[in-house]
Amino acid sequence: MPKIVVKFGGSNLRSNEEIHRIVQVIKNYNQPLIVVVSAFYGVTNYLVDALAKARSDESVADKTVDHLFGLKIESLNQLIENHDLRNGIVHIIQDQLAELKRYLHGIALTGDASKALEDHVLSFGERLSAIFLNGILLANGLDSSVAFPETIGLITDGEFGNASADFHLATGQVRDALKEDKIFVVPGFYGVSREKKTTLFGRGGSDYAAAALARCVGASSLDIWKDVNGFLSADPRLVDAPVKIEKLSYNEAAELAYFGARILHPRTVEPLTDARIPVRIFNIYGTLEVQLPLTVISREKSVQTGVVKSVTFSDDFGLLKLKGPGVGLKPGILAKVTTALHLSGINISSVLTSQISINILLAKKDLQNAFAVVSAIELSAVGKLQVEDDISIVAAVGHGITDNYGIAARIFTALATESINVVMSCSGASPIVSYYLVQSVDRTSAVRAIHREFFEEKH
To answer: Do 232 and 189 share a domain, yes or no?
Structure first.
């Protein structure tokens, strides 16, 4: 019987009540599982901050381990009555924290940390979560054990900070390591290189880790438990009556995640598409019925009435603009710029060109570095280099968006009715998404206007 991979996020581990709900969910499956967990809520950010401070402050190591030890020790005392079991879990946690403390002390002594060391330090949040949850499961009579990525052979391509699983090397090892009929609790977020160095799957990468494990073991599904009601037609914080989306294709889910929907990491569907493993989204605050997912993501494609399935947004992008007469026609300019950005580790999200302007869409965090990199290049045709960061992207997603006439016209009309100016737009880069750059101040109004046009009754 194929196993199910079940993933819980850090927001599911904040209180004893939520932990009880996780235990009940796992019991409701009534079968062997592979459970993937994220770090406790806020811990990864805490470790990022500790890494920065440890370079100049020796006391950070002690403060960090004391904080992390105290974070859930009270929960362990309350949730595990068996004295010997509780002490055993505490000792394992203390061993992990002692290792973390040595690394942070080492960083303080040298004043620096390699990328490999940074990845290893940041993986401790997930390690601690897995040990903690495994102890809770054992206390509830479940046959469970921790399976660390380094021991089960979750091999990656070795890229620090943003690794990908190497399925050619990992699949056989992971499948053999997790074949026993029991519950395995696996820390998400990281794998290991061929040289056994910790490599992270990127921020929020526990979803990707769970997907990679699902592919390796040939899981029947990847079940992700969140604190929201699956994918919706828009963010419920922005619109009054969002519509639940029961079915999405892999590509629709990936585009929604890329353009800001926080339910799923954008790379989650990568390992699953060819293997045809569905993703099922549940709400931990719902009925806990494991056969009633709120949203199912699969290879099935559908065009619904109105075409648009969801409107999402992101405030994480900005524009780098290269301006000058004929800049769009001058050979070699774009090649020089993209090469320089690539060598500096800056990812380009999109490029839109005209006769007098090249507009490069980048992550907002990379804008200033990109400006410095491009400024250093000899580009005779570029008269002005400009950064625009006061923008947001609003995206409409759904199969058929570029194949059905009038969709873009309806969106532009909806925005114009609200006096919202579109800075830039793009349709056709993907057959299922059309996106619009607006001023940040107009973002919420833009989402509401498009959602009203496609999902709300006209008055």
So the answer is: yes
Q: Which domain holds residue 398?
A: 311-455
Which residues make Cβ contacts (< 8 Å) with residue 84, sequence separation at least 6? Answer: none
Residues 254 and 325 in one domain: no
Strand, coil or helix: 431: coil
Enumerate residues 6+ apart whose C-beta is below 8 A from 364.
315, 316, 317, 318, 389
Picking from 238, 270, 298, the residue at the C-terminal end of a domain is: 298
**DSSP class of residue 418?**
T
Q: Give the span between the Cα atoms of 34 and 219, in whole angstroms.
A: 9
Is the per-residue pLDDT at 12 higher than 90?
A: no
Could you tell me if 274 and 145 lie in one domain?
A: yes
Residues 242-292: pLDDT tens digits? 999 999 999 999 999 999 888 999 899 999 999 999 999 999 999 999 999
Contact, 360 vs 348, CB < 8 A? yes
Global pTM reads 0.91
pLDDT per residue as tens digits for the range 418-457: 999 999 888 767 889 999 999 999 999 999 999 999 998 6
Q: Are 152 and 174 in contact (CB under 8 A)?
A: yes
Task: State the Cα–Cα distance between residues 141 and 137, nearest whole angstrom.
Answer: 7
